[in-house]
Design brief:
Number of domains: 2
Shape: globular
CATH superfamily of the largest domain: Spore Coat Polysaccharide Biosynthesis Protein SpsA, Chain A
Structural class: alpha/beta
Largest sheet: 8 strands, mixed
Strand order of the largest sheet: 3-2-1-4-9-6-10-8
Strand content: 5-15%
CATH architecture of the largest domain: Alpha-Beta Complex
Radius of gyration: 20 Å
CATH class of the largest domain: Alpha Beta
Amino acid sequence: MALQTESLLISVVLCTYNRCDLMTAALKSVCEQSLPPSRYEVLVVDNNSSDTTKQCVLAMSRHYPHVRYLFEDKQGLSHARNAGFRAARGLYVAYADDDATVPTDWLCVAQHIIEQTAPAMFGGPYRPFYNAMKPPWYRDKYGSYDLGVVAKELTKDEYLCGTNMFFRRNLLEQLEGFNTEVGMMGERLGYGEETVIQRRICNEYPKEVIYYDPRLLVSHLVRPEKMSMRWCARQMFASGQAWQHVLHETATERIHAARSCLRGLRALAQLTGSLVLGILVRDRTRYPFIENYLYEVVFVQLQTLGSTYAQLARRTD
């Protein structure tokens, strides 16, 4: 379906919290697009930062007049994303992470998708980059997101990643934005807000299209702390908690607490068993380092434990 676009096509929202050095590189990449500046704007949402974020953005805006600074004092990525789309003037709202960089044709590719397909939501893959030496066990796929090399409409069981996503603004308004109970909040790990809203689109607007295009490739920083076993374990547990929040959005998918306890106990037993097996007899061709086995086999059970914990915590509230 072709679309007649408005003059201001895209509002890029860059949410940030105390990462001025990383945010500056992300902002510069968004500003230096091959799409004419008259066709897009950039909104940097400062989510209560205590560093020099505001000064850096205002300095950049003197060189790039289509950059605007916003301050959101309610802590949390969902609050910042909501502030961004409410201040946006573009037909579509794009979200990029403050530790990601985008190629110069990113918005031109987006323009082509909008004009040819006009999806409710669309996005693409990301690849990792590093600003420190990665440990020998860390595989690039741990910091990647990819749904294949063919552009396609997504099914209800496929999800775009929050690092690289676009929404039609009027749909965000109809949905009243992101669920502020989930997602990152300051230094607290959290996930799932973009998954919740995608499921809402599928359930409430089943005729709308969610679209994936591999040409919308961006680069996402894997910070040094993300390549530690401790962080990876926390991430897996937090992602399990987030998934329970996602399921809770749909009442028919809530699981009885007793069944959840059984799943948690089973996951704990499997985690213990797989840990012992990994130490003794893991496939060293497939998992050359014990960290590979922990990440790909053992820590998967932490997602189930995280989900169980979140559900039981909700039941006792």
